[in-house]
Amino acid sequence: MTTSLPRHRTLLALAVTAVLAAGATACGNQDTSTTKPAAGASASFGSQQGTAVTTIGDEKVTVPDNKPTALFFFSVGCGECAGGAKSLATAGKTLNGKANILAVDMDPSESPQTIRQFLGSIKAPELPAAIDTRAALSQRYKVAALSTLIVVDPQGKVTYRATDPSSDQIQTALHKASAK
């Protein structure tokens, strides 16, 4: 009976390590920037209708649209997401309507008020945001991790995917997507 105690500790340690690793992966800050679409994310949706969402400001948005769109997937509870959302807001201001930007909250339990508070805390209250209540955007574009930014061209093809890119990286990716 005393020999099973070390085994239980080992199993417990392995379980805790797995949970911590999963949490770090879901909200990490590693840079996976690439101008090539991620595997499985390059399917074109040109002949399909876009995905319609309503922002927390009650605006109707369709992705893809006639302009390239940057989508940043976040949750208010993700500390790493603040930097990516701020970069998206800065890129949006700089591009001045030449591309669409949208922060997509992956947690359907977060209220519009909570999201507004988050946007205010990162000094980006004007950043368009929507709640992905039925995971329509995350499923369509195969996004499973927080802090992921994708750029979708007007035909619906993912042309860029990264974790917490800078404002300059977002702008460059949007310019490349509009040139295609």
Automatic annotation (TrEMBL):
<dbReference type="Pfam" id="PF13905">
    <property type="entry name" value="Thioredoxin_8"/>
</dbReference>
<dbReference type="InterPro" id="IPR036249">
    <property type="entry name" value="Thioredoxin-like_sf"/>
</dbReference>
<dbReference type="InterPro" id="IPR012336">
    <property type="entry name" value="Thioredoxin-like_fold"/>
</dbReference>
<feature type="domain" description="Thioredoxin">
    <location>
        <begin position="32"/>
        <end position="179"/>
    </location>
</feature>
<dbReference type="InterPro" id="IPR013766">
    <property type="entry name" value="Thioredoxin_domain"/>
</dbReference>
<protein>
    <submittedName>
        <fullName>Mercury transporter</fullName>
    </submittedName>
</protein>
<keyword id="KW-0732">Signal</keyword>
<feature type="signal peptide">
    <location>
        <begin position="1"/>
        <end position="26"/>
    </location>
</feature>
